[in-house]
C-alpha cells in the first residue's frame, strides 16, 4: 500500500497547522507500516493515536483561526466534528487485516483530503491579511 504524502499544494503557511498536518500524515504512514507488517494491534494503536491527534489538531486550528479573525470558518467546526466521527467509525470494530485495509484506503482516498482541503481557504486568508506572501 502506498504511503500518504503531504504535498506542498496543501501547505497552509502557518507553522503550527502545517506541523500538525505533517504529524497526522506521519501517523497514517505508521499505520500503513503496521498494516504491511500484518500487525493488527499496531494498526489499532496507530488509528487511535491518529483520532486523538486529530481532535487536538482541530481544537488548536479552530483557536488559531479565531485568533486570525477568519470569518469563513463558519461551518468549519461542525465539519471538524463530522470528520472526527467518520475517522472513529472507520476503525471501530476493525478486527481483520482486510478491515484495516478498507479503513486505510478510505482515510487516504477521502478523509485526508477533507481534512486538508478546507484549510486552503485559511491559507488564502493569511495571504490576504499580509501574514504570508503568495
Ligand atoms: Fe487542519
Automatic annotation (TrEMBL):
Keywords for the protein's UniProt record, in alphabetical order: Iron, Metal-binding
Coiled-coil intervals: none
InterPro entries membership: Haemerythrin_Fe_BS, Hemerythrin-like, Hemerythrin-like_sf, Hemerythrin_metal-bd
Gene3D superfamilies found in the cross-reference section: Hemerythrin-like (1.20.120.50)
MF terms in GO: metal ion binding
Alphabetized PROSITE patterns for the sequence: HEMERYTHRINS
Record field: transmembrane: none
Domain Hemerythrin-like positions: 15-91
Assigned protein family: Belongs to the hemerythrin family.
Protein name per the record: Hemerythrin-like domain-containing protein
Species name: Paremcibacter congregatus
Taxonomic lineage from the root: Bacteria, Pseudomonadati, Pseudomonadota, Alphaproteobacteria, Emcibacterales
Amino acid at each position: 500500500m502506498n504511503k500518504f504524502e503531504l504535498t506542498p499544494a496543501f501547505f497552509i503557511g502557518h507553522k503550527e497547522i502545517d506541523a500538525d498536518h505533517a504529524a497526522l500524515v506521519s501517523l497514517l504512514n505508521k499505520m500503513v507500516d503496521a498494516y504491511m507488517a500484518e500487525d493488527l494491534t499496531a494498526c489499532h494503536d496507530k488509528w487511535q493515536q491518529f483520532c486523538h491527534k486529530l481532535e487536538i489538531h482541530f481544537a488548536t486550528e479552530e483557536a488559531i483561526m479565531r485568533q486570525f479573525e477568519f470569518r469563513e470558518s463558519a461551518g468549519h467546526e461542525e465539519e471538524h466534528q463530522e470528520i472526527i466521527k467518520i475517522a472513529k467509525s472507520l476503525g471501530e470494530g476493525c478486527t481483520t487485516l482486510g478491515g484495516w485495509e478498507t479503513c486505510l484506503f478510505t482515510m487516504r482516498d477521502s478523509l485526508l483530503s477533507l481534512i486538508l482541503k478546507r484549510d486552503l481557504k485559511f491559507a488564502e486568508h493569511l495571504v490576504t491579511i499580509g501574514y504570508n506572501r503568495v
